Amino acid sequence: QSYCHRLQHDMYFLTSTSRLNEQVVDKIVLQLNRVYPQILTNEEAEKFRNPKASLHTRLSDLLKHLQKKGDRHCQEFYRALQINAEQLFNDLPSRKILKTPDPTEIDTDKEQNMLNDRGPVFFLACFSVAAGLALFWYCCNSETQVIGRARRILGFSPVIIGRHVRNICVLYLEDMSRN
């Protein structure tokens, strides 16, 4: 969307009462007068800063004048508005439209977090279930026999290793000794 169309869309919002005060409008006009390339000539800047005319009229005339000049001039107005009245700039209706995401577009950050939203406890629970099923399947196998040497080696293991972990290690050593 071009800046001229955005400015036309935002015109009512900007010219409504108490949105912009005299000081902010004067700062914007001065910035447009002094920026390179010069958007407003000295005569135009004097016209739009004339305190005899109402603020609403001056602002409306300024916006119409910028729309006639083209897209570059409207873009510079938005830049001046952002510098001098950032909160108002962020509240513009055209900005809200630009911020609204396309419903058909996939948000990659959101999709990436969908896989990680359960946390480490969920991972550990799933891993424990999988390890338990593997151990159950291995223990129920009729060919499994405990070898004495493996049992003696793990018998000297520290107390920190629990009974269940010790049994898993014994089964692993038995499997390794068969191969």
From TrEMBL:
Entry-linked Pfam families: CARD
Keywords associated with the record: Disulfide bond, Endoplasmic reticulum, Membrane, Mitochondrion, Transmembrane, Transmembrane helix
Signal sequence, renumbered to the chain: none
Keyword check for Endoplasmic reticulum: yes
GO CC terms, sorted: endoplasmic reticulum membrane; mitochondrial membrane
Any single biological process term in GO: regulation of apoptotic process
Name of the protein in question: Caspase recruitment domain-containing protein 19
CDD domains registered for this protein in UniProt: CARD_BinCARD_like
Compartments reported by the entry: Endoplasmic reticulum membrane; Mitochondrion membrane
InterPro entries (alphabetical): CARD (IPR001315), CARD19 (IPR043574), CARD_BinCARD (IPR042146), DEATH-like_dom_sf (IPR011029)
Complex formation: Associates with BCL10 by CARD-CARD interaction.
TM ranges: 120-138
Domain CARD: 38-96
Listed Gene3D superfamilies: Death Domain, Fas
Chief site of localization: endoplasmic reticulum
Membrane topology: Single-pass membrane protein
